[in-house]
Design brief:
This protein is α/β, with parallel strands linked by helices and about 230 residues long. It has one domain: NAD(P)-binding Rossmann-like Domain (Rossmann fold, 3-Layer(aba) Sandwich), CATH 3.40.50. It is built from seven helices and seven strands; from the N terminus they run H-E-H-E-E-H-E-H-E-H-E-H-H-E. It has a seven-stranded parallel sheet with strand order 3-2-1-4-5-6-7, with helices on both faces. Helix 3 packs parallel to helix 4 and helix 4 packs parallel to helix 5. It is globular. It starts with a helix and ends with a strand.
């Protein structure tokens, strides 16, 4: 059923070759969607599927995001789904000890990149008539802890932005939702926290399945949601 529904849908996945992005990209490829995978460095051969197209892009500016969207429209004419998986983490410092560079880096990575790509893609998603925007937030957006002030603030701001997008574009059938995972079982996280109990972490494949469902017609009445996926931690 999902394969029939998604076949031919044009899906843009940012951070497509990242720890979560790989699972999201593959999930859409498996249901015959036309998938454009983007990141700063990505190669066509990273996904062995005829329905995959690699488009490197830098989302740190309005111009970079617009250039990516323009290329998508030149090649495919439409855009139905945007899945934004780009993000970064910095922690270990109190707010009082957080330096300006770290705070700005978290804003650039976790908030500004969303702003640039959502602003660029919204006209096309509105024309779709059933556009879907999915962004990956963090549990820290709603449950901040000590030592992650810059990170949690950037994710909280992103969540607020996405909820505004949901309200502003509901008239065009566009939904905008944010998934809030706990610690995900990715190679980068295993390297950073080698002594953790990985069995309690969130599996990226499960997050990818949720993304796929939220992009479907079955989820058309869900918008502006912040969906917790915390695992067993």
């Amino acid at each position: 059923m999902m394969r029939q529904e998604m076949k031919g849908k044009v899906v843009l996945v940012t951070g497509a070759n990242g720890g979560l992005g790989r699972f999201v990209t593959q999930a859409f490829l498996n249901v015959a969607a036309t998938v454009i995978g983007s990141s700063r460095k990505i190669r066509q051969e990273e996904f062995e599927a005829a329905n995959f197209t690699a488009l490197p892009a830098d989302l740190s500016s309005r111009e970079g995001a617009k250039a990516l969207l323009d290329e998508v429209l030149i090649r495919f004419g439409v855009l139905d789904v945007l899945v934004h998986t780009v993000g970064g983490f910095a922690g270990g410092q109190s707010v009082a000890d957080t330096d300006d560079a770290t705070f700005q880096r978290m804003l650039n990575t976790n908030l500004n990149s969303v702003f640039h790509i959502v602003r660029a893609t919204l006209p096309a998603l509105r024309r779709s008539g059933s556009g879907r925007i999915l962004a990956i937030g963090s549990r820290a957006a709603t449950e901040p802890g000590a030592g992650v002030g810059a990170y949690s603030a950037s994710k909280a701001a992103m969540l607020s932005l996405m909820r505004t997008v949901a309200v502003e574009n509901q008239d065009a059938g566009v939904t905008a939702n944010v998934i809030l995972p706990g610690t995900m079982d990715t190679p980068a996280n295993r390297f950073a926290i080698p002594n953790a109990d990985f069995s309690k972490w969130v599996q990226p494949s499960n997050v990818a399945s949720l993304v796929l469902w939220l992009a479907s017609d079955a989820a058309k009445e869900i918008t502006g949601a912040a969906i917790p996926v915390y695992g067993n931690a």
